[in-house]
Amino acid sequence: DAGVIQSPRHEVTEMGQEVTLRCKPISGHNSLFWYRQTMMRGLELLIYFNNNVPIDDSGMPEDRFSAKMPNASFSTLKIQPSEPRDSAVYFCASSLSSSGQPYQPQHFGDGTRLSIL
Amino acid sequence: RKEVEQDPGPFNVPEGATVAFNCTYSNSASQSFFWYRQDCRKEPKLLMSVYSSGNEDGRFTAQLNRASQYISLLIRDSKLSDSATYLCVVRSLPGTYKYIFGTGTRLKVLA
Fold first, then answer.
1. Quick one: CA torsion of B29, A72, B103, B39, rounded to 10 degrees?
2. Which residue in B29, B51, B69, B71 is deepest, having the highest Cβ count within 10 Å?
3. B9 shares contact with chain A (CB less than 8 Å)
4. Which parts of B3-106 fold into alpha helices (H)?
């Protein structure tokens, strides 16, 4: 079975450029999560969607970050303009969220390693 | 107080040893609990869910203590390949879709 698919795997770009990260969740999963991980701050939840609707974006650092989920099989995280402090590994994860199935875990993609020069 | 707390370690243990990690959570209404493993520069991967009655998967045993609000992970006969960071994850409320991650406990198994 295909897992969560993220692209690109690596991105190196200059400060000020727009960066778009992509995620395809596991088919049938109705919740999607974007995380950022750095050595200093660990794993941070940026935003999550349920049934394509953003539920909580309180972790989005600032207005330079935006995320969309136009359909159940695709989501993007955009940074515009990018800054060196945005350099991190960005993970997408998906899960099946149902009150009747509380033990459903999250499944992570391989991540996108982002370097802003 | 953090919602989910773990001892960051590192725990350095010899091969074959038994090692245990604890994780405490602050929300008594938390419903679902998991242990994830993360290798260096890789994504977190589900190790096991933690059920109310406790559960075992090979060398790994997970326990839940609701009264004291902690979960534990026991690794028996540790292998070099068990070296990783172990993340405790809690799902806070029924109907809430967020997963709250601890900062992880680093384990290094020594030859």
1. 130
2. B71
3. no
4. none
